[in-house]
Amino acid sequence: AGPEDLENLFDVFLDMVEQKGRPKDLVQQALKYENTRTDMKEKPKKVLIIGSGGLSIGQAGEFDYSGSQAIKALKEECIQTVLINPNIATVQTSTGMADKVYFLPLVPEYVEQVIRAERPSGVLLTFGGQTALNCGVSLQRAGVFDKYNVKILGTPIQAIIDTEDRKIFSERVAAIGEKVAPSQAVYSVAEALEAAEQLGYPVMARAAFALGGLGSGFANNPEELKSLAGQALAHSKQLIIDKSLKGWKEVEYEVVRDAFDNCITVCNMENVDPLGIHTGESIVVAPSQTLSNREYNMLRTTALKVIRHFGVVGECNIQYALNPNSEEFYIIEVNARLSRSSALASKATGYPLAYVAAKLSLGIALPDIRNSVTGTTTACFEPSLDYCVVKIPRWDLSKFSRVSTKIGSSMKSVGEVMAIGRKFEEAFQKALRMVDENVIGFDPNLKEVNDEELEEPTDKRMFVVAAALKNGYTVDQLYDLTKIDRWFLQKMKNIINVHDLLESVDQVSLQRDLLLKAKQIGFSDKQIAVAVKSTEIAIRKKRTDAKITPFVKQIDTVAAEWPATTNYLYLTYNASSHDLAFEKPHIMVIGSGVYRIGSSVEFDWCAVGCLRELRKLNKKTIMVNYNPETVSTDYDMSDRLYFEEISFEVVMDIYNLENPTGVILS
């Protein structure tokens, strides 16, 4: 149960034993790969990048981040960049990024006009989400790229069509002996009902070529399916009817491949919520916590097999459904483009995915690309994580009347946060506070226990789980209701156990050991204060008097196995020393945090502008932000990046450690 990348060398060994040739020749023959793509031999002089347009649910600031990285990568190769994106509130459309920017609608007619005027030699389609892909596919089918002799860089357009068209996708996957979930592609409501009868209810219906699971959902009977199919077919001409695998684990891998068939998995992630909830709506943990070594490598091997089979050059996201009671698994989907998961994987590992994908699209080999984060290793390595990352989405459903708070296979979240800790409990509680500044952590007093809400998830389900644990529900009971893995439920129970201990004492009798234990599993000063009936300032003073202060650790992508120069930082109480010294004066800039309705990518644009101006003035900068979709949290935007909460406690902890010469809040 281990990696199978070099299993073929065992065959070489056997050939050597049988004296079938010179050892050097046999090894070279086994490992040699001939790049057959003639379109990647010559580097383009001018490249058109299609952006993602206006922000929408399912497609937010992550494409501003990926597009900005692509522009940086192309400029390094002395390639002229032309960007088409009508979204004025983005960093990529700012002065100093692309050489030319067209603020035009992302529809084939306008893009063709830009191509006619600019005559680019290449185009990038995978950095603008589903909008750019759909536009690119339309242009290809209309023969526009051939007409103006524009090469599609990176992943071939046919591979994109094959992964988006669910019928072709399932046939291509079956060709390499892998399985997709039992499903049928249909084109009318009548065909949908017939397919559901053959597959057996419950079924899941989802539209092909759609954004963020638009028009998808579960149907338990023909009536529900009729309504669902009618809605979905309004968004897309093709509808997929899947056999429901609700309750299975959902696991994702981010994979990278170059034109010379070098493949690596950059990050694997596991959804806390079981299958049935869109990955953009789920709480996600990286690296996966509940997979066995055998399961991890089994899914990794399949991911590499699939990306090679489709001929993807660049970055690719593959999602699996894994049976929690056996090693049975299905491939749910493959996204042959950068996605929200890619932004999360990039920030979680410190591996600049979009930057590397842009370089790969030019035909550069992975071993020839320097890892710009570590400064010492190449891009042809798999990151090692000596920490735990938790992503939680943010919903703003309360701002709308008559909107269901239930979450499912169609995205409703408007943003997401990412927290880093040395323990799951620590990162999980940090993330809950990041999503909503009015939440103090995994609080059992926020919601009432409700079995229906545990079975049918809502945006506040985690607080119902907290209340249930406090009211004596066992881990097994909660597993039966929620199908959340027992490992995660046990970790949540650990938080509630410490919460109960804190409630049994007052501020005076609160001992150092209990205070330290609470901090190590992610309790904030305010959270402890509420439990012991005190104030945040009093707990902060008690903590500092007891010399309980956080340590600064680095995300170096290599788990300290290699020397690395990185500015990617987080705070933890599960450590005994700092990873860096605090010597030079810096100016601290506070980021805008999670995207929400009313505060979005425009404030990231402000933060990036501020950092750039400070750099021009030769000032060293500190950025504090926790939004993985942003450009401000990119590795090269500031001298020190703290992926941390924006709260009084944390900002003051960083302030006391760094002692900056100034703080910019606006």
TrEMBL record:
Entry keywords, A to Z: ATP-binding, Ligase, Nucleotide-binding, Repeat
* Enzyme Commission no: 6.3.4.16
The reactions it catalyses are: hydrogencarbonate + NH4(+) + 2 ATP = carbamoyl phosphate + 2 ADP + phosphate + 2 H(+)
> Could you tell me which Pfam families the record lists for this protein?
CPSase_L_D1 (PF25596), CPSase_L_D2 (PF02786), CPSase_L_D3 (PF02787)
One GO CC annotation, please?
cytosol
- Under which main EC class is this enzyme filed? ligase
SUPFAM superfamilies from the UniProt entry: Carbamoyl phosphate synthetase, large subunit connection domain (SSF48108), Glutathione synthetase ATP-binding domain-like (SSF56059), PreATP-grasp domain (SSF52440)
Which GO BP terms, alphabetically? 'de novo' pyrimidine nucleobase biosynthetic process; citrulline biosynthetic process; glutamine metabolic process; UTP biosynthetic process
Please state every residue range assigned to the domain named ATP-grasp: 170-362
What GO annotations for molecular function exist for this entry? aspartate carbamoyltransferase activity; ATP binding; carbamoyl-phosphate synthase (ammonia) activity; carbamoyl-phosphate synthase (glutamine-hydrolyzing) activity; dihydroorotase activity; metal ion binding
The reply to whether Nucleotide-binding figures as a keyword in the UniProt entry is yes
Q: Which NCBIfam families match?
A: CPSaseII_lrg, PRK05294.1, PRK12815.1
What is this protein identified as?
A: carbamoyl-phosphate synthase (ammonia)
Name the species this protein comes from.
Heterocerus fenestratus
Q: Read off the lineage from the record.
A: Eukaryota, Metazoa, Ecdysozoa, Arthropoda, Hexapoda
